[in-house]
Each structure stands twice: as structure tokens, then as C-alpha cells.
Amino acid sequence: MAETYTLCVQIESHEYYGEFYLVGEGYGTPAEVLDNIAADHLLRISSASRIEEYLLDVLKQGENASEGEYDSTDADIECWIHVDVSYQRYAFGVGDRVVEFTGEPTKSEIASTVTQLQS
Predict the structure, then answer these.
(1) Which residues span the domain enclosing 99?
(2) Regarding beta strands 4-12 and 77-84, do their DSSP bridges make them parallel or antiparallel, or are they unpaired?
(3) Which residues contact 96 (CB under 8 A, 6 or more apart)?
(4) Integer Rg of the chain from CA
(5) Backbone angles phi, psi at 102, to 5 degrees
(6) pLDDT of residue 66
(7) pLDDT in tens, 80-102
(8) Domains in the chain: how many in total?
(9) pTM of the predicted model as reported, rounded to 2 decimal places
(10) Which residues of 47-73 are buried (b: 16+ CB within 10 A; e: fewer)?
(11) How far is CA 93 from CA 1, 15, 113, in A?
């Protein structure tokens, strides 16, 4: 049976506060979820000229899961992203472990974090 993950994406700005959920299979460690799923979202959020563009893109692509599906999923790994757009604060977390990025995350900073999570 494939490993299942959940990822809660929390976004905060002066104009918006909300969260949405991703559920998927194939990744069972925090490093794998960050490297293969969360990194893409962190980079898309940081490169969007407005947060609404990112949110519409996620909805158009049908990436998000319902809150009910998220809550009922028996995940092997549960992770989250928190982004405060107004203050350019980005974080990735799993359990009690939180990794904060300095400003907008870069590919190399995310890769370094993946390496840290693997050790």
C-alpha cells in the first residue's frame, strides 16, 4: 500500500486568511513531502504577484481536497505550510518540528532543508 500524506496550506495576508488541504500518496517522510509537494507550493506562492493568483491556480488545477477528506484521511505523514504574505514569513512543519525560511524561500534553501530533514 502506498504511503499517504496530508498537507495543510495556511495563508495569511492583510486581505485574506484561510487554508486549504492537499491529500496524496507516494510520500511518507517530511523530507519527501517538502521536496516533492510543499516546495512547489512555497515557490508558487512567493513568485505570485498577488496571493489571489496562486489560489485561483490551485483551484483551477483541482489540487485541493475537501476539509472532510483531509480530516478523514489516515495519513502516514501530516505536514503543513504557513505563509504570512504581508510579512514575508514562510514555514514548513510536521508535528512539533517547524522550519522557518528567511524571507521568500529559494530552491537552494528548500533543498538544504530537505537534506536537514533527511538526517
Answers:
(1) 4-118
(2) parallel
(3) none
(4) 14
(5) -85, 105
(6) 94
(7) 999 998 899 999 999 889 999 98
(8) 1
(9) 0.90
(10) eeeebeebbeebeeeebbbeeeebeeb
(11) 25, 24, 11
C-alpha cell at 118: 533527511
What is the CB-side half-sphere exposure of residue 26 using CA atoms within 13 A? 6
User: 530537505: which residue's cell?
Assistant: 114
Between CA 70 and CA 64 the distance in angstroms is 10
Strand spans (E) along the chain: 4-12, 17-25, 77-84, 89-94, 97-101
Q: Do 10 and 91 contact (CB within 8 A), yes or no?
A: no
Cα end-to-end distance, the chain, whole Å = 25
Residue type, 112: S
Predicted confidence (pLDDT) per residue in 37-81, tens digit: 999 999 999 999 888 899 889 989 888 999 999 999 999 999 999
Chain length of the chain: 119
